[in-house]
Amino acid sequence: MPQPMFRPRRLREKALLRRLVRETRLTVDDLVYPVFAVHGRGVREAIGAMPGQCRLSIDELLREAKDAASMGIPALLVFGLPEDKDARGSEAYAEDGIVQQAVRAVKDTVPDLLVITDVCLCQYTSHGHCGVVEQGVVKNDPSVELLARVAVSHAEAGADMVAPSDMMDGRVAAIREALDEASFVETPIMAYSAKYASAFYGPFREAADSAPQFGDRRAYQMDPANAQEAMREIALDLDEGADIVMVKPALPYLDVIARAKQEFGVPLAAYSVSGEYAMLKAAAQLGWLDEDRAMMEALTAVRRAGADIVITYFAKDVARRLERAR
Question: CA–CA separation, 248 vs 253, rounded Å?
Fold first, then answer.
């Protein structure tokens, strides 16, 4: 019987050989760690649907920031929960809003850690939608005006980057113009460019108390069936001045990530969302999966698809795993 001329298994036999020929690497430098800031002091409130994640008062958030920085994680993505909500989400752009306070505190305490801020209204509005509601309809242009105010207020507080997640048309251009006019020409925008109307956001809506009080978000978030539309959305955001574009969620949309990287070749983020995190955590708790291996495999797949930046609630776990593997 003739023997194969090339045996791929030769390069799989030993761990060091596998490392030498590994095509895709997940490193701590690729990670962004999302955190949830709340008012108060000494608050570390567990999020039931996201084991290991908490809503944090600013003093507790600073501990997380120091931990993340000590592990080499380069950036936080900050979400805020307001004390009070109203129809226009006014705490989102208030000088003393929870995100603005958190940004100032982190930059004062851990100045070398990048602070990225989520720019949206859903956590702050009494109706839970990502924009201004008039007669039961989310209005695009009035929402964009407020989102630009939010972005400027975050930059004034010291944010290193702003990340609009609302999916209103034209908001990247409006934010870029507002930042430039406010002398924040150097503040980059990471746009949630292809954000799908996904069932995988469920645990986040518990974490951020951001579920809509009526209807849903399919009128402005993308149809999960569409990929070509995602390319148009990304192209529009780049034309409007986005510095980094994002696909969200990550695992169910690896094809979109790969296509976006191939078509545009720009810095690309992917958000491994709360539902992805919760699924792995729940399966691991039931003994159905090896959590560490599943975590690393899933997030490496996101990198392999083409994401340069991986936003994940597993960021600290990944950093620990990588440190142990050294």
Answer: 8
Q: What are phi and psi of 24, to 5 degrees?
A: -125, 135
Helix (H, G, I), strand (E, B) or coil at 40: coil
DSSP 223: P
Contacts of 31 (CB under 8 A, 6+ apart): 73, 74, 75, 309, 310, 311, 312, 315, 318, 319
- Catalytic residue, chosen from 85, 195, 281, 316, is 195
Residue 163, Cα to own-chain centre: how many angstroms?
Answer: 8
What is the third-level CATH fold of 23-325? Answer: TIM Barrel (3.20.20)
Cβ neighbours of 121 (radius 10 Å): 30
Average pLDDT over residues 250-269: 98
Q: How confident is the model at residue 246, as a pLDDT?
A: 98
Tell me how far apart the alpha carbons of residues 12 and 251 are, in angstroms, rounded to a whole number: 26
For residues 296 and 288, the answer to whether their CB atoms sit within 8 Å is no
Concerning whether 195 is annotated as a catalytic residue, the answer is: yes
The reported pLDDT for the residue numbered 215 is 66
pLDDT per residue as tens digits for the range 304-320: 999 999 999 999 999 99
- Catalytic pick among 14, 85, 139, 248: 248
* 261 catalytic residue (yes or no): no
How high is the mean pLDDT of the chain? 95
User: Which of 193, 192, 30 is closest to 117 using CA atoms?
Assistant: 192
Closest CA to 246 of 165, 159, 168: 165
pLDDT at 73: 98
